[in-house]
Model the fold of this input.
Amino acid sequence: MRRNNGGGRGFGHTERKEAAMHVQQMIATHPGAKGRTHDAIVHCIEECLDCAQACTACADACLGEKTVAQLTQCIRLDLDCADLCAAAAAMASRRTGNNQAVMRMTLEACIEACRLCGEECARHAGEHEHCRHCMETCQNCERVCRAALDAMKPGVH
Done:
């Protein structure tokens, strides 16, 4: 069993590094990649997966709060953000063919979902630590997805 070495979101440095290596290795082994990876896209996949998990956990924690009735919008945005992040990560992981227009739209939707979810979680961050963690994760995912979108060029997906 792995130890949690800190890192703020439940993963220690070693675990995060291993997860990053896994995404990069999987993409690099694709016959079309020929051993090359696009760092911005790899980082985007990693952050989207992290954000999907954080948003799902935050929604679940919100459901467990005594003030759940006041957290319905937070729960909704958490779940929407988790779904979009998971979809973006899955689509960005595909190396066969190219659907850059849809990938760009998906990243734009993911960026907006992360922004809205982060803003909503910020409203509750003082009372609920899970919302603070989710807010930070959404903000990071938004930034990384924006960088991946900016780095996309024709033929890079």
